[in-house]
Amino acid sequence: MQRTVVITGATSGLGRACAGELAGLPEWTVVVAARDRARGAAAARALGGGASHVTLPLDLADLDSVRAFPAALDAAGLPPLHAVVANAGIQHRDRRHTTAQGYEATFAVNHLAHFLLLRLLLGQLADGGRVAIVASGVHKPQRLRNFGFPPPRWDEPERLAEPGPGSGQIAYANSKLANVMTALELARRIDTLRPGAGIAVHALDPGLMPETALTRGYPAPVRRLYPRLAPLLARLAPGATSAAGSGGQLARMVADPAYAAPPNGRYVELTRDGEPSPLARDPELAARLWSESERLVGGIS
Questions:
Q1: Got the DSSP string for 104-162?
Q2: How many domains does the chain have?
Q3: Residue 110 falls within a domain, yes or no?
Q4: Which residues are catalytic?
Q5: How far apart are CA 93 and CA 221, in angstroms?
Q6: 284 part of a folded domain
Q7: One digit per residue, pLDDT tens: the chain, 301 residues?
Q8: ∠ at Cα 217 (212, 223), nearest 5°?
Q9: Residues spanned by the domain of 159
Q10: How far is CA 67 from CA 60, 105, 121, 191, 225, in A?
Q11: What does the alpha-carbon distance between residue 141 and residue 233 come to, in Å, rounded to a whole number?
Q12: 116: domain CATH number?
C-alpha cells in the first residue's frame, strides 16, 4: 500500500536522514515541508525516485503558513497520509527573536507551530498512522548527558511565548519539554480525537548530534568552532550519536510495526524506551499547555 509521510526540517540533519531512510522503502512518498522552496526541492530530488518525493511550502515561523499547509497537501494528489514527523527545530542565543505573530521564536517554531500542524493534519491521517515528535533529553533537569545544557524553567505558556530577555538555551529546553508534554497528551487524547483509528503517537530523544545545525543562531565564532569540535564530541561524549543513526531510528518509529499502537505515548531515548521527566508526565500541566496552545495559535477548526 502506497503511503505518504510529511517531515518538517527534512532539508538537513536528522530530518534529512530520516527522509532518506523512508525514501529507500518503495511504499513511501516523502513530503519535504520546507520554508525555503529551493532547498526543499533540492532535498526532495536528492531522495531519488524521480518525482515521487516532493516539497511543499511550510514556514513554521508563520502560523498562517501552517494553516495553509493541509490544503496544499490535499491538493498535491499524493498517496494517503500515514505519518507526520515533527522534527524541525531552532535555537537562538537569546529570547528576542520573534515570529510573524510576534511570539518568541524558539517556543513558537519548536512547539506552537508543530502543535497546530499536528492538530490540523489529524483529520487527513490514515487509520493506523503514526505521529513522531522529536524531543530532547535537555527537557530533563540535572541530567548528566545534557553536557552542561541548562534545564527548563517552566512557566505559563503565554509567558513562554512572549519575547524578551533571557537565555536562548533555556528557551530551547522549555520548547523540548513542551514537545514531550504534547506527545504524551496527544497520545492520551488520540482515541477521542480520532476514535478507533489506531493512530500511534511517540516522542524521540535523538541524542547529541554534533553535526546538526542548531548553532546557526549563534555568533560567527561559535559557528566556526563548533564543526571542529563536533567529531571529538561524537566520539567522546556519552549519549552522542549521529544524524544518520538517529535518523534511522526516527524512520523506524514511522515504518516499523513494532511502533504501532498500542502501546501509545512511548518516549524513546536513542533506540530504547525511556522515561520522560516528572514535569513532562504531569497530566495537569500538559492539559494546561494543550488548552493554552489552542488559544495561542488562534483555535483549531
A1: BHHHIIIIIIHHHHHHHHTTTEEEEEEEEEE--GGGSTT-GGGTTPPPP----HHHHTS
A2: 1
A3: yes
A4: 172
A5: 13
A6: yes
A7: 899 999 999 999 999 999 999 999 999 999 999 999 999 999 999 998 766 899 999 999 999 999 999 999 999 999 999 999 999 999 998 999 999 999 999 999 999 999 999 999 999 999 999 999 999 988 987 655 555 678 899 999 999 999 999 999 999 999 999 999 999 999 999 999 999 999 999 999 987 756 555 545 444 554 455 555 555 555 555 555 667 778 899 999 999 999 998 899 999 998 899 999 999 999 999 999 999 999 999 999 7
A8: 60
A9: 3-293
A10: 10, 17, 10, 23, 38
A11: 21
A12: 3.40.50.720
Look up residue 25 and give its three cell numbers.
522503502
First to last CA, the chain: 30
229 closest CA partner among 220, 239, 237:
237
Amino acid at residue number 167: S
Q: Which residue has the cell 524558539?
A: 106
Q: What pTM value is reported for the model?
A: 0.90
